[in-house]
Amino acid sequence: MIENSMFEEEPDVVDLAKESPSYHIDSDDVTYEPRSSRLLVRGLGENDMDEDEEDYESSARLLGMSFMNRSSSQRSAASSYTRQQPSNSCSPLSTKTTAVGVLILVLVVSMFMVIYFVPSCTFTKKGCQKSNSSMSSIYPISTSGELFPWTDLRLPVSVHPVHYNISLHPDLNSMTFQGNVSIVVLVVHETKNIVLHSSDMNIIKVTFDDKEYRFLEYKPWQQIAIKFPEDLKKGQYVLKFSYKANLSNSYDGFYNSSYVDTAGTKRVLAATQFEPLAARKAFPCFDEPAFKSTFVVKMTREAKYISLSNMPKIKTTDLNENGLQEDEFESSVKMSTYLVAFIVAEFSSHSKNVSKTTVSVYAVPDKKDQVHYALETACKLLKFYNTFFEIEYPLSKLDLVAIPDFLAGAMENWGLITFRETTLLVGNQSSRFDKQLVTSVIAHELAHQWFGNLVTMRWWNDLWLNEGFATYMQYMSIENVFPDLDIDIEFLNVRFKALAKDALNSSHPVSTFVSTPEQVEEMFDSVSYEKGASILLMLNATLRDGEFHKGVIEYLQNYNLSNTESKDLWNSLSQVSKQSLNVSEMMNTWTVHKGFPLVTVKRNGPQVTLSQEHFLLNAENGTDDSSLWHIPLTYVNDSCSVLRSCKQVFHLKDKEATLQLPGQVKWLKFNFRSDGFYIVHYDEQGWSDLISALKVDVNVLPSEDKAALINNIFALSRLGKVSFRQVLNLMDYIRNETETAPLTEALSQLGQIYRLLDKRSDLNLASSMTTYIESHFGSLMESQSWEVETSVSKMTLRSALLETACALNRPNCTTQARRLFDQWLASNKTLQIPSDLMRTVFKVAAKTDEGWSKLLGSYKHSIYDTEKRKMLEALASTQDVRKIIWVLQKSLDGSEIQNQEFPLVIHTVCRDFAGYLYAWDFMKENWEKITQKFPIGSFAIQSIITSTTSQFSTKTHLAEVQNFFSSLGAKGSQMRIVQEAIETIKHNMRWMEKNLNTLQSWL
Ligand SMILES: [Zn+2]
């Protein structure tokens, strides 16, 4: 899977969209603990709500809104994932009352826990009963009131599924479906129970070897069980279910989706999204990745629709019932349930053959002309992967389908990859800039056909084996197959983003214990994807040429069609490594610890002292100081610094080590091309030698190294290791810089600070920052062309510079943008706006009532999704509160703006001063509705929370955020992202306290 928000954020200044800035805080304020022991939000009740009230009220008054209304709607704390929790009916009227409430809650829960976990006690409706002497577990109570015979979120391993026959009949008028599933199961250990997953369905009949049985259901864990009077002997049996269910209204399970075609007719379709835990919503199944099986799917549909599934269709049968037809698909390869997929819709397609595989791209008929780029790209990438992995893609067909309403970016279902329209469809007028996104997503999902589908992680704790690998392969394959897409700049940004997230105490190890559904959802985050990809790059750069490639092939061959853990990958790579390097020993230090190391370099002539410590933004009271990484440190010096052959390596495994240089050097730069996942700090002389070298010759280092110096020095200033003066000293060189990576990184870093100043209404400082940015980037802004450009690198730079320039109201920029918008309108939208400038142009246009209305009209009628999203971002960037409210409401109810766009809308609204407080209030008041659409813990929810909270930097807002999330009880308070949000706000506060004076004197 690829999450949409992972690629929709682009660095720029005022509209800066990077993840939450990370500033310094006290570690005792935020501690990340295992969920089982975490109690809501820490520090509750410490904050005096009266402080900063005035500041808060004035912003509320300014916006004419009810920000002071802290009563949120009452929320039930009855979690679907926890066994029993008292219902929470208190509104968070004030911190004190909430604190008292929480105290009472703690007492009640504690008493409950004492009773609940008394040894030899079975907790039932009747209270504490003496258990059977052999029964030491605590059995939950099933829906019928009987004891449910299983006590774990993970299924027992005594029964394995072997094969599923699934027959489905979705009714797209009533939005319901009927299903019959028969599962061939293998009893491997004698047992009296079969336990499997099922959710949100009405099971009518269960048979086991043709005999009807009752079943028990324990809804909180989405499990059902069939109890047998005698032990089932080892062997094969057939388990059958008949059931009915509604097509889901959210974005998972077997869900309904709709769109309005160009003729104005509403069209409906049904599609699936099962990863991670929603196959159980479409058919009863053993819904864990290690229970691999084969699947036969049969789909009944009306003649006007087509149906698709993972495998090629074998036949279609007329059922003679109201013109219904049944499609039957070939038996699948052995695979996990989360990869099963089916679609019933009216789609058109184009196809092409690669080796033995027919590749097809499907879209709604109105957009059938937009599939050609995806088809060509998928074919090229399939060829590349077939050769690279030395295992041919095993199916005879590969479908790529653009679904009109789809939450994730794309999903790698084996043989039937589903996409958002934006991530698959490309109009004729699209530039390489837009194609880069489509290419990336296709490359990611195709890589999954091997990493994930062929070889699958055993459990979700190792999700990174799927996602980190697919992310790494996506960049690696594009560098090989599409070098003109300049994907290296994007990958560098991704690594910086991963560092920023992983510097927080609320981060987690790459491989992390998970059990509850929310914990599984939360694994789809920057650590699994971006840090996972970053450490693979570091490993590849450390191994000798070709070794990584060989190890990957070895791994795929060894574990073909089975499941793995991290150690299996490291062992495969160790086997092929000719060096004395112990890959497992080295890489374990990167997957077991959270965070990453800060390497400090002190040089005395040819003697260099190196030391490592955990780069933790709250390091003063760090909790993880003993962590040591095996760091494959790389470095270059003044005599050879640009070519890859200049790179030297030193393995730092201990806390401190000494490196002896063969001769004198003027300067050293560590972490060559930023291939390693660590931050480097130099002594004062080391920094000034590097800065001087850059001021003399801007080309003395590769662009990745310059960007990394900028990234690292800002991070170090947050950690308090370097002064802001030193940061600005480095930034002085930027006036001579022309390369994209360092320039966009500098803009992005300055933008984070600008946004915080802006949101605090610190007008003087915000204006000084504007002047600073203009003095350093102004001449580059003026020299950008507004004509069509072909280099992706130039487009990336130009769009960042001009979007900033227009946001700062530089007259030349806004005039050019208006000119392009007027020409575009006058030509009835036939005259193109360069696609990298479209967002800038639309945002300037949206500043006037007339421009905004015209954009809205265009938004409604455009069939080009890439263009539409840029229009939507412009619509949501308005300063007019009434329009902000309209956009938020329409995207949440899904009426005029697709519901899938809500995270993007709220993200965009939050960028500007006018909208960010309103967006926070809107999220609170609509939390119930939002979480019905987007699951707790999901990437969408993570993105919504980060967008609404990451720019707060006052005590009042901190208390607001703490109060709100603690009031949610099990409906959200325990998410890791909430810890991250609180940590980030505290960083912002601390950073502001420390640096406001410096900023005043130095800007
Ligand atoms: Zn993925």
What does this structure look like?
The protein is an alpha+beta fold and 1003 residues long. Among the domains are: 208 residues, Immunoglobulin-like (Sandwich), CATH 2.60.40.1730; 224 residues, Neutral Protease Domain 2 (Neutral Protease, domain 2); 160 residues, Immunoglobulin-like (Sandwich). The protein is 40% helix and 19% strand. The protein contains 29 helices and 31 strands. The protein has an 8-stranded mixed β-sheet, with no helix packed on it. A hairpin with a 4-residue loop joins strand 21 and strand 22. Helix 6 packs across helix 9 and helix 7 crosses helix 9. The longest helix has 27 residues. The chain starts with a helix and ends with a helix. About 12% of the residues have low confidence. Bound molecules: zinc ion. The site of zinc ion has 6 residues, from helix 5 and helix 6. Zinc ion (ZN) binds next to helix 5 and helix 6. It holds the Pfam family ERAP1_C. One of its GO terms (molecular function) is aminopeptidase activity. Keywords: Acetylation, Aminopeptidase, Cell membrane, Glycoprotein, Hydrolase, Membrane, Metal-binding, Metalloprotease, Phosphoprotein, Protease, Signal-anchor, Transmembrane, Transmembrane helix, Zinc. Belongs to the peptidase M1 family.
